[in-house]
Amino acid sequence: MISWASFLTIMGMLAVTYSTRLIGFFALRNRTLGKRAAAVMEAAPGCVLIAVIAPHFVSDKPHELVALAITLFAASRWGMLPTVLIAVVSSGGLGYLMK
């Protein structure tokens, strides 16, 4: 069973993450974005993914480095959703198998 502290932490992270989406929606809903602003908005998910996996580039754990290589290969071939799914499965699976 999950502890209350963990549950409240997860709910707090959910609220903060979703509030950033709501703020962006309400701030930009009646505006027309220029080409440069639209390009920035389209690049944001990729930047977030890189920020999440960047610490693993300097990892000393073999399973993280292998999962990183698999993720980079997937990112060069497919879109965001398949890449994230492959990254999560490879990281979790290799972490379980190689520990």
Classify the secondary structure makeup into a structural class: mainly alpha
Share of residues in strands: under 5%
Number of strands: 0
Per the principal axes of the C-alpha atoms, what is the gross shape?
A: flat
The radius of gyration computed from the alpha-carbon positions, rounded to a whole number of angstroms, is 17 Å
- Tally the structural domains: 2
Short structural description:
By secondary structure, the protein is mostly helical. It is 80% helix and 0% strand.
Task: Report on the architecture of this protein.
This protein is mainly α and 99 residues long. It has 2 domains: 31 residues; 65 residues, no CATH class. It is built from 4 helices and no strands. Helix 3 runs antiparallel to helix 4. The radius of gyration is 17 Å and the shape is flat. The mean pLDDT is 88. This is AzlD family protein. InterPro entries: Brnchd-chn_aa_trnsp_AzlD. It holds the Pfam family AzlD. Keywords: Membrane, Transmembrane, Transmembrane helix.
Topology:
Blueprint: H1 4-28, H2 35-53, H3 62-77, H4 80-98
Helix pairs in contact: 3-4
Short descriptors:
about 80% helix, mainly alpha, about 100 residues
